[in-house]
Amino acid sequence: MFDTMTFTKTMGALCGALLIFLLGKWAAEELYHTDGPHSAREQAYVIDTGADADTDVGDVAEVDFSLLLAEADPSRGERLWRQCAACHSLEDGRNGTGPHLYGIVGRGKGDVEGYGFSDVFADNPDIWTPENLNAFLENPRGYAPGTKMAYAGMRAVEDRAALIAYLDTVDE
Questions:
Q1: What local confidence, expressed as pLDDT, does residue 49 receive?
Q2: Residue 121: CB partners within 8 Å, gap ≥ 6?
C-alpha cells in the first residue's frame, strides 16, 4: 500500500515544487528589486502632478459657515436626515438610541428629559448653536471625547449646513 517508491516520488515532487517556487522568487527579485546597479536609472517619463508648485496643498480656503448655512437647502438636509433617523427622532419627547432632535438648534446640550447623556454633555451649560452642531457633526468623538454617539462624522461642510438648516426648520 505505502512503499518506498511512493514516498520517494512524493518527496521528489514536493522538493521539485519548492525549487520552482524559489527560482520564481529569485527571478522576480532580480526583475523588480530596487537595490542594485540598475536602480539609479532615471524614469523614462515623469508625470507632472503639480506637487512642486508654489501653492501648498494643505492650504485650504476657510469657508464662512454662516454663509453656507444661509444658502443651505433644507430639503437636501431632509434627505441627509435619513442616516440620523436610525438613532434619533424628530418627535418632541420621543428618544431613541440617541436623544430626540426636535428643537436641537438653540437647545442646551444636555437638556432632554428622560435621556441619559454621556458625562461630556450631562452637565454642560452650553447650547447647540449651528457652529457647535457643525463641529460636532464633522467629528463627534473629536468634538466631545467620551460621547456615546458612534457616528463617524459627516465630512462635507455643505451637507452639514443643509442638515442643520433642516433641523432648524423642524421646530417652527
A1: 79
A2: 109, 110, 144, 147
Q: Which residues of 43-81 are buried (b: 16+ CB within 10 A; e: fewer)?
A: eeeeeeeeeeeeeeeeeeeeeebeebbeebebebbbebb
- Write the single-letter amino acid at 17: A
Q: Which of 74, 98, 49, 95 is nearest to 163 (CA)?
A: 74
DSSP secondary structure of 62-101: PPPHHHHHHH--HHHHHHHGGGTTTT---STT---SS---
Look at 9-13, 14-18, 44-48 and tell me which has the smallest mean pLDDT. Answer: 44-48
Report the distance separating Cα 64 and Cα 128, nearest Å.
18
- Which class does domain 65-170 fall in? mainly alpha
pLDDT score for 47: 78
User: What is the C-alpha radius of gyration for the chain, rounded to an integer number of angstroms?
Assistant: 30
What would the grid cell of residue 125 be?
Answer: 451649560
| Cβ atoms of residues 164 and 77 within 8 Å | yes
Specify whether the CB–CB gap between 128 and 135 falls below 8 A. no
Cell of 98: 440617541
